[in-house]
Design brief:
This protein is mainly beta. It is about 10% helix and about 25% strand. The chain is globular and about 90 Å long.
C-alpha cells in the first residue's frame, strides 16, 4: 500500500529575473551556464545501453538522464520491427531525477538534469567516497558504464549450482561481472577494483555479506522491506553522483549536494500488460556532511507521446500517477505529421504514465507521551506535488517556461512556478490573484466535464515537461532514500479527452506487482522429459526435481496480484493461500505429422 505523510513545506523566497529558456538541437536548445572549473574534474558520462527484454526499448544513459539518446526521444513502445519496415515511435523524449535542499546557513544545494549537450551537466558517473563524499577523475572514468544481467542468466547459474557444474569458466557473464560487494571476479571482468562498500544488491546465500556466485549468490532487486531473493527478466545497474571531483554544476549553476544515486532499471517478459512496462529504482545516498532542510526529490519527464507539439498531461493523485495523452484524435501537428521528422502514432493514439510507486522517507520527530521521550522516525512520503512547465519554443507566459537559474529550478522542484508563484486551480494553473492553491495540476480525468484537466481548460497546442515531487524532507548526513517508478502503457485509446480508467486498469498491475515486492511473474517451468520406447508405445517420464525450477517437486505457486486484500492479507494462512495460483498438472500433445 502507499502511505502518504504531508509536511508543511519551508518555502524560500526565491525569485529570479525572466530568462530565455532552452531545448536540444532540432527540438531542445541549451542554456548557457558558466562552465569554468578549477581542478582536474570528471568528464561527462558517455555510456548508453538499451533496456529491451520485452515490448519496450528504452535508452539508459549514465549522466542523470534517460530515455533519450542525446538527440532524440528513445522510449520506444511498442518495439518496432525495423526489418519489416516498421518505424519507431517514442512515447517519452527524456527523463531524470531532480533534487534540491537548503543547508543550515540558507545555501541552496541543487542537482537537476534535463538535457545535456556540450557537457552541460549536474551529474557524473560513479560512487562517492563514503568518508569524504567526493570522487576523482579515474573513478568516474571506471564507472562510466552500465551493468546488465538477465533472468535467463540467473536461472542458468542456479541450475549449474544445483547440478554441481558451476565453475569460474562457465558463470554467465551478467552474474560473474555483477558490481556487488566483494565480487572476486569483478576486476577480471571489468579491469578495475570495487570499493569496499555496498553497491548492487544480491542474494547472500552463505550470509557472509560478500558476493561470490560460486557460493550460491546471485543478483537481485533491492527494495526496502522486501525479501532479498527477487529478480526480474532483465536488470541494469549504474551509479552517478553530483560531486564530479569538484566539477561545476553547469546545467543549473547549483551547489553540489554530495549525493550518490544508484539505479536499477528492470523489466519482465510476459504475455500481459507487464510486457509493455519498465520499472526503475533510485537509491539516493547523502554522502555530504550537511543536514539539508526543505529537501525535495522529483521525477522530471519530457513526455513526447509521438509528436511533441500536441500533448496534454494530467495526474491521478490517489495513484501517484502522471500521464500523457493526445490533444486530439490524431497524433501529429498538423494532421498526422510532426516537425523535425518526428514519427507519430497516427490515429492509433496510446496513453502512457509514470507511477510514483514509492517516494522518499522523511525524518520526523514527535513526543512520546507514554515515555516522555522525543523520538525520531522515518515516514514514507508519496507524491506530494505534481507540477509542469512549458517549452519556451512554444511561447506563452515567461513564468511558466523552462528554468535557467538555480532558484528557478528549485521553485519548480517545490511545486511552484518559475518565479515562485503558486499553482492555483483552474485554467493553466497560473492564475494571478487566485488564492485557491493546487498541490496537483490537472487532477481530473480528461473525460470529466466538471473536472480540472487540460481538456476542460482547452489549452493550446504545446510541449510540456512534468515533475512528480516528493517532499519536503529533512535530509541528514548518511540518509538513504529510494524512489521507485513504473511506466504503464496502453495502446490505441479513444481520443480526444480519453477516460483515464484505460490507463488505471493497466497501472493497477504495476502497483500490485510492487506491493507484492516484485515477486515472480513467470509460470511453472517445463519438466525435463525422458522417453522410454516400448513395444507399440512410448512412455514420457516427466521430472521436476531441480532446485532451479520454479516448479520443483510440482509445488509451483504464484500470487494473484488482483486477489482481494481481504484474502491476501488474511491472518489465516489457509485463506491467504487461496489467493495463489497453484500447479495442477501437465498437458502432453501428440503431433499428427512433422508438419
Amino acid at each position: 500500500m502507499k502511505f502518504k505523510y504531508f509536511l508543511l513545506p519551508t518555502l524560500l523566497g526565491l525569485f529570479s529575473n525572466v530568462a530565455n529558456a532552452h531545448l536540444p538541437a532540432g527540438h531542445h536548445k541549451s542554456a548557457k551556464v558558466n562552465t569554468a572549473q578549477s581542478r582536474t574534474v570528471c568528464a561527462s558520462s558517455t555510456s548508453q545501453i538499451d533496456q529491451e527484454i520485452n515490448n519496450v526499448r528504452a535508452r539508459l544513459l549514465g549522466g542523470g538522464d534517460m530515455w533519450w539518446d542525446l538527440s532524440k526521444g528513445s522510449y520506444i513502445v511498442p518495439k518496432a520491427n525495423l526489418a519489416n519496415g516498421e518505424k519507431e515511435v517514442s512515447a517519452i523524449f527524456a527523463a531524470g531525477v531532480w533534487m534540491g535542499g537548503v543547508d543550515a546557513a540558507g545555501n541552496l544545494k541543487l542537482a537537476c538534469q534535463d538535457y545535456r549537450p556540450s557537457d552541460r551537466t549536474d551529474f557524473w558517473p560513479g560512487p562517492l567516497n563514503k568518508q569524504t563524499g567526493t570522487t576523482d577523475q579515474q573513478t568516474c572514468l571506471d564507472w562510466d558504464k552500465h551493468f546488465r544481467v538477465t533472468g535467463d542468466e540467473i536461472r542458468l547459474h542456479l541450475r549449474q549450482l544445483d547440478e554441481g557444474t558451476a565453475d569460474p569458466a562457465n558463470i554467465p557473464a551478467g552474474v560473474k561481472g555483477w558490481p556487488a560487494r566483494g565480487n572476486p571476479f569483478f576486476t577480471e571482468v571489468h579491469h578495475f577494483s570495487l570499493p569496499n562498500t555496498g553497491l548492487a544488491s544480491f542474494f547472500d546465500a552463505d550470509g557472509d555479506a560478500n558476493y561470490n556466485p560460486l557460493n550460491g549468490d546471485f543478483p537481485t532487486i533491492e527494495v526496502y522491506g522486501c525479501p532479498p531473493d527477487r529478480y526480474p527478466d532483465e536488470m541494469i545497474f549504474w551509479i552517478y553522483n553530483d560531486e564530479g571531483s569538484g566539477a561545476v554544476h553547469s546545467r543549473t549553476g547549483g551547489k553540489p549536494m554530495f549525493m550518490e544515486v544508484q539505479v536499477q532499471a528492470f523489466g519482465y517478459k510476459t504475455d500481459d500488460e507487464l510486457n509493455d512496462m519498465t520499472f526503475q529504482r533510485f537509491k539516493l545516498i547523502n554522502r555530504g556532511s550537511d543536514e539539508l532542510d526543505s529537501t525535495f526529490f522529483a521525477i522530471w519527464v519530457d513526455p513526447d507521446l509521438g509528436c511533441f507539439s500536441d500533448d496534454y498531461i494530467g495526474c491521478d493523485s490517489l495513484s501517484d500517477l502522471m500521464y500523457v495523452y493526445n490533444q486530439d484524435a490524431v497524433d501529429g501537428q498538423p494532421g498526422n505529421l510532426c516537425d523535425n521528422g518526428v514519427t507519430t502514432y497516427g490515429d492509433k493514439v496510446p496513453m502512457i504514465g509514470v507511477d510514483f510507486l514509492r517516494g522518499a522517507r522523511s525524518s520526523v520527530s514527535f513526543y512520546d507521551w507514554s515515555t516522555g521521550e522525543q523520538i525520531d522516525t522515518l515516514v514514507e512520503v508519496g507524491m506530494t506535488r505534481f507540477a509542469y512547465y512549458n517549452s519556451s519554443g512554444f511561447g506563452g507566459l515567461p513564468q511558466t517556461m523552462d528554468p535557467s537559474l538555480p532558484s528557478e529550478f528549485y521553485n519548480y522542484l517545490t511545486g511552484s512556478w518559475r518565479d515562485g508563484s503558486p499553482f492555483t486551480v483552474g485554467g493553466s494553473g497560473f492564475n494571478l490573484g487566485s488564492n485557491k492553491l493546487a498541490k496537483y495540476a490537472f487532477p481530473s480525468s480528461p473525460n470529466d466535464p466538471n473536472g480540472w484537466s487540460m481538456c476542460t481548460a482547452g489549452l493550446n497546442f504545446g510541449d510540456r515537461r512534468t515533475l512528480q515531487i516528493t517532499g519536503p524532507l529533512r535530509l541528514k548526513p548518511g540518509a538513504v532514500n529510494e524512489l521507485i517508478i513504473g511506466v504503464p502503457f496502453v495502446a490505441d485509446v479513444p481520443h480526444p479527452c480519453p477516460d483515464i480508467e484505460y490507463l488505471l486498469r493497466v497501472d493497477r498491475k504495476a502497483q500490485a506487482l510492487f506491493e507484492e515486492c516484485f515477486g515472480p511473474t513467470f509460470g511453472p517451468d517445463a519438466p525435463l522429459v525422458e522417453w522410454v520406447e516400448l513395444n507399440h508405445e512410448v512412455v514420457a517420464v516427466l521430472t521436476n526435481e531441480y532446485a532451479f525450477s520454479s516448479n520443483n517437486e510440482e509445488e509451483y505457486e504464484m500470487r494473484d496480484f488482483f486477489a482481494p486484500d481481504s484474502i491476501k492479507r488474511s491472518q489465516d494462512p489457509g485463506v491467504r493461500r487461496t489467493a495463489n495460483y497453484r500447479f495442477e498438472g501437465y498437458k502432453i500433445y501428440q503431433l499428427v505429422n512433422p508438419g
